[in-house]
Fold each of these.
Amino acid sequence: MNDYAQNIKSSQVVLVEFFATWCPHCQKMMPVMAEIREKLEDKIGIFQYDIEKYEQLSDDNKIETVPTFIVYSGGKEVWRRSGEVDMEVILNKLRDAADGL
């Protein structure tokens, strides 16, 4: 968990995705996450965790559905959404958390 705690504080704004390789909704979101990474990687922290490899971390964060997206600002959770999410919704939440990004 120490790495996670450090990761969510590694940048003013951080996007975390919990996913599973077998999840069709997660697979649909992979290109979206890739595009977000391409657009914002130099401005925010982006971390992806496979719930099967990080079971305890998933439990600690109360992940019940995948994919789950969490936005942190200053190390604090400011937004969470599960399921397929439109890229613009995620980008808007990141902009809100970063005062415009």
Amino acid sequence: MSRRKLLALASPVALAVGLTGCAAVGGGNIPSANTPITQNEAQQGREYHSQILQEFGGAMQGNTAGYVRDVGQRIAVQSGLANSQSAFTVSLLNSSVNNAFATTGGYVYTTRQLVALMDNEAELAAVLGHEVGHVAARHAQRRQQAQQQNTLLGAAGAILSGILLGDSQLGSTLGRAALQGSQLLTLSFSRDQEREADVLGVNYLSSAGYDPLAMSTVLESLARQSALDAQLQGRDNASLPEWASTHPDPASRVRDAATLAAGKTGATLNRDVFLRNIDGLTYGDDPEQGVIEGRQFIHPDLRFAFTAPQGFYLVNGAQQVTINGQSGQAELRVAQASGSLTQFVSSAFQSLSGQGQALNPQIQRTTVNGLPAAYGTARASTSNGQVDVTVFAYEMDAGQYYYYQAIAPAGRSGVFTPMFQSFRRISSTEAAQVVPRVIDVVTVQRGDTVSSLSRRMAYSNGQEARFRVLNSIDSNEGLRAGQQVKLVVRGR
């Protein structure tokens, strides 16, 4: 959640039309893959650009951002979309999710978190080349045609489709529940687009002189990171099978990308250059956007904290913090509004009402940790059965409301009560103790082991597993003196 109090993503449906994500293999003839960018496409990309930067923490500046831009422009020009590298706008986003995407008109994006997971420059070029492949194949336009037939998907589910993570966490909780059935209508279409982008991305790698196998290795790292995240968050069984996911199974993508690389030329990795350019990069949450520590979310700038229920995990976004679990979902947002707390909660329910359902619960006032609060719960029907929808709001300052929107199976909304009661202001002393984590590139010394270096990772759990995934080191693999590896340490 950004320290900017109100973040309005204007016209989310229009943005969905322009944003293409990522995914795995097929090929054949890819329509429009060599057609230059048109003036209309460039104009559309410019219109989406500011909205995307606002939603994903803004564009980073400095040496790392410049390095990512240069690599992205070099790989993008291989597409034939434009002869000049300057025709492509490549942005490093200040976001803690592993993601990359592109918009029409040559706008390409990757998050700092995804860059930190990579091992070399070829992998960076692979991810960005994959995104350029989406632009070259006009996937945004083809998605628009599908969305015109399925407007529900266009409004929420397709706003963001990342290189591995298909859930954008955007749209209301109730809206996501209603979308579950409609999303299945376009799954095969989305997977086909991703396969085409992989084909093009591998071709771009080879023509630029990079090792084409880098597409496979970065996808393998993503798959490992995704599995580790699920394990650490206690959701080992939460991932969907390939046939029910917006993206192909990561393991199949790794195999297919390796097959595509076979027989192609190119050997450049530039590992040392890459590591030098990401040393010191922020890793995980930026304190200016709030940080997640286990089940606790704490925002030092906005001066609040809360704790998710047992068995739930947190996802931090620019506009909201999402709370996910097997027994429900919720999100915390901030708004400026006139009127009383009761009126604000009532208006929130009106916004959630839809599909012929009016949500008009009895709204109650209370106090939580010294903060004025109001809440209500309403019963609603979805395609998956009845659910309870709760809005719980707090007034931090005059006219400034922090509020949860939560959904749970009918009769089970109480699972969120401990979280509602945990919301609190934090002191300036507690806020000052929140510092970022950063990437620290170190050289392995004689006597260093995976175990000894892992203990320097700035985490209280999963240190060795995190170290191995971050450095693509297999479970039975050791270290050698002189080798460079990445650590995640506390910054200043």
